[in-house]
Queue: 2 jobs
Job 1
Amino acid sequence: MSLMKRLRLIFSAKASKALDRAEDPNETLDYSYQKMLEMQQKVRRGVADVATSRKRLELQMKQLQQGSDKLTNQAQQALGQGREDLAREALTRKSGLANQLTDLQVQHAQLQAEEEKLTLASQRLQAKIEAFRTKKETLKATYNAAKATTTVNEAFSGISEEMGDVGLAIERAEDKTAQMQARSGAIDELIASGALEDKLALGGGDDIDRELAALSSSTDVEAELAQLKAAAGGGAVTAGEEAKAIDASGPDEAAVDASAETERTKEES
Amino acid sequence: MIVRILGEGQWDVEEAHLEVLNTLDGAVEAAVEADDDAAFSASLTALLDAVRTQGTRLEDDSLEDSDLILPPSDATVDEVRAMLSDEGLVPDQ
């Protein structure tokens, strides 16, 4: 049997299971209406939850960007003092932050998409709630006059299908939000890991440093180091120019990240 | 014939288009069976586009149930398999 028919059967099986529970169609109609109102509350909460996660991501992105800017300055200072090792450390960390930032940008886009989907689902549901509110009274009158359950059942399955659809949208959004929240704690730790000089003063190198070093591409670091050296030779590089250079390399990093993500997905599945 | 695309809404598609939809649906089904994400994504996009372009969108306040139901446009093979399984991804009410 075709996929689209199988999915349809699954939805109607769920609907008839719910329908079996009620005996009196009048009650079924009121119950359905009540369920729709509850579902609408759930969708609205879902929209609010996704928005909260999105705002948290935005804050983290801002913090990572600030951290990245600071590391650029530190690398320049270190190089000015003839400490190439320190400059290298700063750029290594910065490269790690850049990877995280790219990752967060992808997540942010996903959350925005979920938020939009739920908002639209809520609008569709609202239109159906209003239509059903009027229709259920007509259906009740018809049923009470002729005891015709068919029309009641038809209306019920249309409603039930919509609720199944909306319920699925909420679950999918919740899954995505939960995945992001799990990663979000790690990002907070990264942000809280403190200023570079603190680490280096202690001899440098905790777990996060090692993780960052592993994440970062050493070629990027070398290239940027060379760039800074060249700039130091021929006049100072401003933080603004530096940021532009990083932006320009953005798409490549995103592509590398995306392919790494694909690899990970393959391994997991 | 009413077709629902999960997460999007419902379309009224004429019976005449059913054969085309069935062919496209067959490709989606084959991709699910082959566990081929790339083929699944491409064939699902083709199927959903066919419904959107050949069908007439129902108003949001329509209370009709659908004859056919299709996965959300960004669904994965795993998700569709879960929807079709006994435990089901489709929530109980």
Job 2
Amino acid sequence: MKIAIVDGISEADFLISSLKDNNKISVINRNEEYAQFLADKHSIPVTHGDPCKEYILRAAEIVNFDVLISLSENDADNLAICQIAKDKLNIKKTVAVVENPRNVDLFKTFGVTEVISSAYLASRQIAKISTLENLINSFSIEKSNIEITEIDVASDCKISNIPLSEMKLPSQVIIACIIRNGSMIVPNGRSFVNGNDRLIIVSPSETQNLLINLFTKGSVA
Amino acid sequence: MFDNFFRKKKNLVIIAGASRFGSRLAGLMCEQEFDVVVIDKNINSFCKLPDSFSGLTFDGDASDNSVLELNNIKQCIICIAATDSDTTNSLIAQIAAKVYNVPNVYVRLNDTSNNSFLQKSNIHIICPSDLCVKEFEKQYAVKETEAAL
């Protein structure tokens, strides 16, 4: 994919590092020193200038790119950049990062494809990691009571020698997948759960905490 | 006090940005008996408001729609985006015109090259450099005619 990354300091650097291997990246940054730093570090085309100006974006030759990611500190700038990209440069997908969480819905109605509020995401993530230990990822299915949870099994988990069929799991709980040493195992009743395995579990929301306790502490609550 | 101000207002004008343009406009609109609210992030900017100004000032970010809502943008008949930043003005104009359907939205833009998303019947663009060029042409034309005589 062809991706344009506009403004941003460390987040731009990080994004470029993770995307540059499989994509064509072009960078536009208004900070001259940082633009130079990114060009030297990543050996990719970098344009220095105010990205809110159409001629600067055109100079970066990003017309018809697949994605533009706007990481400027100013929400209004991000909107302007995404709107120019969409209307004038024919970029299919635009992503804006916003400071004010209220701008998430607003910017979508003004035509930005995806809007990310770091404040909103960070607060949600902080709430999650402070309440749930060892939980890597949890995904709620919209409008239902179902959670898909990713759990790392504790190395001293006490139930590791019991086959799944004898494991007295709460009803409606499915261990969908066991990830062991990077490979995937679809479990059956005779499968075992070892310490350090990663499990993907489908369950009702109310049993989520019980399952986390079971696999991370080995105690059945 | 705030509620009282808004309760009886039928001709509310919101001016975003107490720039020189915004401040002078605020004085002018007050003289014409509009009820004016001026919003600016920097309270020192309100020093620029002229003596004729008799409206309210609000210290806040006018590009935040909760600030606009607090200032009763739903009742507002004219909204003027007059901050120093083109992108901020463009955002305020879009919120006023597209979200709150303010009947008359004026937006000051220094660069009018990328305003395709501001093309809506209730948005009017004011560009200082365009106005300067027009004024120059006018004055120059007068001088030419005088010379010819």
